Amino acid sequence: NVGKSTLFNALTQTAAAQAANYPFCTIEPNVGRVAVPDPRLEAIARVAKSAKIVPTSLEFVDIAGLVRGASKGEGLGNQFLANIREVDAIVHVLRCFEDPDVTHVEGSVDPIRDAETVETELMLADLDSLEKRMVGLTKRARGGDKEATAQLALIEPILAALREGRPARTAVPKGEEEAARRLQLLTTKPVLYVCNVDEGAAATGNDFSARVFARAEAEGAKAVVVSAAIEAEIAQMPEADRKDFLASLGLEDSGLDRVIRAGYALLGLITYFTAGPKETRAWTVVQGTKAPQAAGVIHSDFERGFIA
If I label 197, which of 83, 146, 177, 289 is the partner at 20 to 30 A Cα–Cα? Predict the structure, then answer.
């Protein structure tokens, strides 16, 4: 009940996610693809005299909120934890506004407590998953299985961190990021905090969001301020009116554009472009990808026959 579905609706400019004022109104995860805003596309299209523009996109999944005890199946716990396992990064939408008309599952507004509730449930689920895995690995390692021994070396520091109440991402041994990803843990995923503020705080944030930004900085996560109410309004407006409306609120761009860009950066993604009379198109690759592999995103033949 913090504005996730309202934000998701605005993101995908649809009413695909039911936004209602009661807990667990999101049951099935809603999935939406959104274009990544990039002013360079239009500039390139003008130079290339392209007939159309094709932006790159990012997929967002609207997953229901977690409550205390989710790792033990409270609320709709286990189902949601399985949905979270399949994503590449987690956006925590945190309620940073007071409104007596919108109920809060804990009875008061405290975004840090809410973030900790979710993180604790994710850590408990990871702890449970690793402890079960340890039993079989320990047996195999005692029998001289080298792969099991290597797995234990990776898992043991992560398990220690989880037992101390720290997320798995804080304890992944250097150079083992890919192996840790294969463990499919919830708390190795990068995190973006979205502070949902009221309309008056959309440009500057407020005391609640300031605390969230401090937390994000301390743990190497990212944070953005958004007013879901404003974004829902913008989503219904004609494109031509949006800039003036944002300017009247002291905003340069929409909060959603910031969320999309922050999500893109969080996943370590970059864009390259192809341009011609037919179209200007944006393509997504992971930062550090070599040119032949980047060309392969368009077509595997381009990678095979790459010359220069």
Answer: 83
